[in-house]
Specification:
3 strands; Helix Hairpins; mainly alpha; 2 domains; 7 helices; minor pseudopilin epsh fold; single chain
Length: about 200
């Protein structure tokens, strides 16, 4: 069984407690609960009736990936909130190497944020050993096999509508200012160990 990770609202300055409570305590926790329910049902699902049009097993497997990816992406998103937005560390060096400059990465990441229907993921792709900004229009659509999320931005409206209305651009600016580069560097350090092994 999966357990929701707690989130200290006080560490975030640009997103209201109300938004974070709804986003974390209801939406994210709901995905955790739903994944647990799906996993329980999969134990008993009749695999002899599996087919490509419809079967209980098929639908459970489709929703399993949706809920699992929702949990992973939300945890990565919440994990890097609450910093001061000051870039630094080995991650910035890798960004400069892979994007040309930090400014070029920021421009690309923000543009991705304006077009993504669900998520922007700065991911280290083990397939080519580089960082990429990938977009996902749904939790389980757009992820790249072998790419590990480092910085994740939620662009679904629930992440910003209460605080920013339809002004997604202002929300993205706030996200960048609230980004914890220390935490992003901790994630990247783990990724670097995987890529070197």
């Amino acid at each position: 069984m999966y357990s929701p990770k707690p989130f200290p609202y006080s560490k975030v300055t640009g997103i209201s407690d109300k938004t974070l409570e709804i986003h974390h305590d209801k939406l994210y926790v709901g995905y955790v609960n739903k994944r647990n329910e799906i996993e329980d049902k999969l134990i008993k699902a009749d695999r002899t009736q599996a087919n490509g049009t419809y079967s209980e097993f098929g639908e459970l497997k489709r929703q399993e990936s949706f809920a699992a990816a929702a949990i992973i992406l939300h945890e990565a998103y919440f994990n890097i909130l609450g910093g001061n937005g000051e870039p630094g560390g080995d991650l910035v060096k890798q960004i400069e190497k892979d994007f040309g400059s930090l400014e070029d990465w920021v421009t690309d990441f923000k543009a991705c944020g304006l077009v993504a229907r669900g998520w922007v993921v700065l991911a280290y792709d083990l397939n080519d050993g580089r960082l990429h900004n990938y977009i996902c229009d749904a939790h389980n659509q757009g992820g790249i096999w072998g790419a590990i999320p480092v910085i994740v931005l939620d662009t679904y409206e629930h992440a910003y509508m209460i605080d920013y209305g339809s002004d997604r651009k202002a929300y993205i600016e706030t996200f960048m200012k609230d980004l914890s580069w220390d935490e992003a560097n901790r994630v990247f350090a783990k990724v670097a160990k995987v890529s070197l092994s």
